[in-house]
Design the sequence.
């Protein structure tokens, strides 16, 4: 009898677990916890208008870092030449290109979250698509700065533009240098337009609730949007085209960046899987950066706890885990083929990666990119906890920066001519790199006070599409296709 | 036409707005006499309205073609503009794989730029002239604008109010 009672009790508990009330779902899912649209608008506007002294203190510190790291140091390098940077024989590509690849990687997050998840109708994306898209645009700005630093004589950047010079010579459009220019320019323009289009209705919302200079600002950017049937139709069509078309553009950018390396015959670079390996690496660091931004936005901005919930960290955490596994697969694939090939110089390089003076970086890369994400993100509770997710995201980004550092200057430090071997040591690249990081955060902070970070109309649209339905004794979430 | 008046009715939700559109038709108005504005992309099917025409996909296709032609010029035509051939390494004069990369990037750039500009052209953006608008729309309300004979104003107002309109008034143009 006692055994029977215990069994009945267990069955009852199980039944309760499957029979959650509406309150449970409201608390857990933003899409099932609708508020009146006016209230959500007010919450987003309030989050933009509320700034504490801490915000301005951080803003001031970052401005000072940008002034020194980016403006002063870059001006100094322009005046004195690339000689004050650490690049020299045999490593002519250093931290500038590491940062370029890193920032382009960060920029992949916006498109991945906004476009791919939109195409696949992943509903959890709705409240943070804009936060991710902003990262794309601001990340590409830093990538542009980094590559301009690498140019040295930055004022001659227009030599790459496709028009003939005074001797009627055109840039060689078949050169990898122009692939890069075109790919990054196309991606920067596309992602900026893709950021702006869904922003128009929210700018109109902000226009209707602002006064003074903000009113003028939003009125100008909202372009006279009212929300007529025609305007929505054109916008919806354009966003659908963008969502599909920007995905191959995103893949092409980092693939082309990888070809800068893979098309060379250097040991460690000449690999046919560098394209997808780079794309997955970009997604890895990008998703890590998104989760960091979301944790900061949720923790520091007013009302954001309503919009950004543990469910979002949970979903992104799962994606990060899958991407981490994919990155590990590509890394091992690349390593295995090179190791098995038996080329003397490749073996030398692989040994240098693991056991050279920067071997600690190689091991840290694997720990941060693989071991820690796998150890943490499998657990639902851990990956749903914002501060844990933040730390994992941070470590992944450090790990991915190490990966690019190993691929570029460390791999260039040794080659087929041992008499030229020399370990690369960065010089002004360090303050310039820190300057780009500070500028990225600064731009993001400024945007968080000027642009509605949450696409309120998309959230409301999602909330309209979601409902609870009972199947037998179980309540489940259902989603309708509204488009 | 001089006897016509433009009215707006603000509804709290989709359902009464869709009913109102049906009622307006029953009262003799055609779809051309109505316009709906909303804070979320309400589809035509939800409101029982005819499909909206948009040129955005056509403009996107046009932009892609222009981009492709521009890329063909840069990759295939430009090498032949010189009075003497400029050979780069062992590559062919117009090498295939690098040409594909440029063709892809500029085609996509042309398509996406024209898609973006298409929204501007089709929506008449930017437009800072005074227009008929109600701010409640961005709070999630649905506004139905319609043109009706001035002498029937009362009849239309009553019909809209009966269907749940929160307010029915003469639509005024204003600076947004």
Sequence:
């Amino acid at each position: 009898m006692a055994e029977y009672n215990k069994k009945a009790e267990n069955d009852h508990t199980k039944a309760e677990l499957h029979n959650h009330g509406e309150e449970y779902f409201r608390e857990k899912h933003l899409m099932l916890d609708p508020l009146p649209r006016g209230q959500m608008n007010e919450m987003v506007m309030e989050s933009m208008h509320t700034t504490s002294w801490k915000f301005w203190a951080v803003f001031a510190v970052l401005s000072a870092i940008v002034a020194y790291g980016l403006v002063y140091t870059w001006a100094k390098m322009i005046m004195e030449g690339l000689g004050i940077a650490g690049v020299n024989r045999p490593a002519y590509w250093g931290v500038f290109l590491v940062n370029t690849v890193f920032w382009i990687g960060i920029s992949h997050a916006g498109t991945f979250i906004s476009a791919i998840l939109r195409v696949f109708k992943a509903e959890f994306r709705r409240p943070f698509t804009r936060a991710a898209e902003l990262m794309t645009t601001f990340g590409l700005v830093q990538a542009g700065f980094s590559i301009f630093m690498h140019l040295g004589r930055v004022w001659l950047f227009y030599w790459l533009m496709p028009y003939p010079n005074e001797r009627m010579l055109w840039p060689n459009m078949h050169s990898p240098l122009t692939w890069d220019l075109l790919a990054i320019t196309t991606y920067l323009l596309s992602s900026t337009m893709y950021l702006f289009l869904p922003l128009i209705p929210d700018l109109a919302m902000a226009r209707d609730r602002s006064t003074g200079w903000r009113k003028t600002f939003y009125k100008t950017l909202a372009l006279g949007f009212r929300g007529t049937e025609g305007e929505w139709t054109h916008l919806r069509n354009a966003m659908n085209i963008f969502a599909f078309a920007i995905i191959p553009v995103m893949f092409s950018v980092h693939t082309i960046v990888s070809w800068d390396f893979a098309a060379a015959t250097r040991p460690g670079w000449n690999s046919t899987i560098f394209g997808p390996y780079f794309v997955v690496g970009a997604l890895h660091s990008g998703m890590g950066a998104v989760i960091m931004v979301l944790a900061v936005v949720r923790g520091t901005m007013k009302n954001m706890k309503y919009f950004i919930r543990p469910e979002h960290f949970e979903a992104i955490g799962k994606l990060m885990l899958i991407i981490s596994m994919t990155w590990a697969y590509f890394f091992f694939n690349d390593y295995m083929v090179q190791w098995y090939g038996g080329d003397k110089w490749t073996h030398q390089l692989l040994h240098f990666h693991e056991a050279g003076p920067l071997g600690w970086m190689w091991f840290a890369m694997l720990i941060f990119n693989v071991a820690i994400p796998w150890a943490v993100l499998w657990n639902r509770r851990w990956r749903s906890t914002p501060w844990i997710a933040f730390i994992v995201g941070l470590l992944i980004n450090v790990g991915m920066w190490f990966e690019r550092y190993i691929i570029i200057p460390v791999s260039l430090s040794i080659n087929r001519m041992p008499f030229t071997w020399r370990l690369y040591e960065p010089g002004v690249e360090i303050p310039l790199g820190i300057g780009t990081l500070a500028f990225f955060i600064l731009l993001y902070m400024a945007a968080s006070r000027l642009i509605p970070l949450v696409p309120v109309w998309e959230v409301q649209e999602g909330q309209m599409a979601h409902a609870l339905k009972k199947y037998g004794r179980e309540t489940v979430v259902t989603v309708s296709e509204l488009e | 036409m001089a006897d016509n008046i433009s009215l707006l009715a603000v509804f709290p939700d989709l359902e009464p707005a869709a009913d109102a559109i049906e009622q307006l038709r029953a009262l003799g108005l055609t779809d051309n006499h109505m316009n709906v504005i909303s804070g979320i992309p309400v589809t035509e099917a939800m409101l029982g309205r005819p499909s909206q025409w948009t040129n955005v996909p056509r403009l996107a296709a046009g932009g892609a073609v222009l981009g492709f032609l521009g890329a063909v010029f840069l990759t295939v035509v430009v090498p032949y503009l010189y009075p003497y051939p400029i050979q780069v390494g062992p590559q062919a004069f117009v090498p295939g794989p690098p040409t594909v990369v440029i063709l892809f990037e500029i085609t996509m750039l042309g398509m996406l730029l024209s898609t973006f500009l298409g929204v501007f052209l089709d929506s008449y953006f930017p437009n800072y002239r005074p227009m008929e608008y109600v701010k409640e729309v961005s709070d999630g309300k649905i506004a139905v604008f319609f043109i009706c004979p001035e002498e029937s104003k009362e009849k239309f107002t009553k019909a809209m109010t009966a269907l749940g309109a929160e307010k029915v008034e003469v639509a005024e143009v204003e600076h947004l």
In short: Chain A touches chain B through 63 residues (CB under 8 Å). Chain A is about 70% helix and 0% strand.
